[in-house]
Amino acid sequence: MSALSAGMTREDAFELLAAHNKDPFHIEHGETVEQTMRYFAREYDPENEEFWGIVGLLHDLDWEEHDDEPEKHTLFAAPLIEEAGGTPELIRAIQSHTSDFNPELPRPELQMEKILFATEELTGLIGAAIVMRPSKSVMDFNVKSLKKKYKDKRFAAGVNREVIASGAEMLGWELDELFARTIEAMQSFAPDRDTFVAE
């Protein structure tokens, strides 16, 4: 893999996120997806871990201000990212995760884009399931429990199951593998966090 440039530092990216998101949940969701992306980057593309992380951090940059127009999600983010010095490849990677809402956006092609597409909604579902558990921890969470929540459409109803299934297919992974690996990713950075909330 060649080196990818985000055109901004992680600090710049966080400032941008904080400027457009006031709800602590949205900040935390960005950070959760950032750390999940970094986990997978270390396996698939270690030299670009920073880029993968910034993609994860900013993937929902415009959601809080424009959540009433899901089909335009990430379109509002593009000029904000560009203005902050973000590169076209950063914008492309972020926009690819909403190509299911808007067919005019690029479909995920790079492994990084497929992983973002597959895990972003899933981290929300896992987070929602964790807060219902007595331990409030991801450390004792498992695939069996996740499958039960995934099948119950009323649980965390805002989480799009079709996107998760489609993401697994893109990666060539069984759903169980996607579930197991995403739980492992979250266990790698969130052993003590119990503040996950469903969107």
Automatic annotation (TrEMBL):
One Pfam family of this chain: HD
Domain HD, residue spans: 27-109
The alphabetized UniProt keywords are:
Hydrolase
Residue spans crossing the bilayer: none
* Molecular function GO terms recorded: hydrolase activity
Q: List, alphabetically, the InterPro entries matched.
A: HD_domain
Keyword check for Hydrolase: yes
Name of this chain's protein: HD family phosphohydrolase
Species source reads Adlercreutzia muris
